[in-house]
Known about the structure:
The protein has about 220 residues and is an alpha+beta fold.
Amino acid sequence: MDSAHLENSEDVLPMMDVRELGVVPYEDAQTLMKELQQQRIDGHIPDTLLLLSHPEVVTVGPRARNDGILPPSDYETVGVDRGGGLTWHGPGQLVGYPIFKWGERQGEASVADIIRIIEGWLIDALAAFGVEGVRDERMQGVWVDGQKVCSIGLSFLRWVSRHGFSVNLNTPAGRVEGVAGCGLATETTTSLAHLGYEVEAEAFVQALLTGVRSTLTS
């Protein structure tokens, strides 16, 4: 689609653009997210979902910086401006960054509503594989068998989101477990594989997109 046409009206935009990007260094993803967020604000692109993974890194949010919390010294770190504390990223994890314009559909009146919508996407996708994901009062995200397997952290500008969610499918043993994520104790966050669930990334993506598209058309 010609970019000049996109500037004239959002009516010509598709419902959603899904970009599956493979492995992307975290700093490159941050730059891309900021560029796309501004393009979405300006109406040049539709709601855009980035799906990817990162080489291992722990992102350090404002909460962790304020409290002086860092992961063990053998983890690479990078500062971020989304809410929350520490979040592990690495192999065996699916990351989703929804560059979405919120607040125009029913049930999107607050950040808490938006977090709940994203949790619902993940819970429904897990259910497609017989995995019972739930919300837990200890922390936003999705939990399975009492442990956290999905993290959510967002940043907004004019109600367009940046950052997003991560799903630990089959991460290296002990790595995500070694990070005290977002105020939780070590070993609280883990992967589905560690809990005995085998969920392939490609199949999970297809289940996830079903829920995302349902939200956009509701």
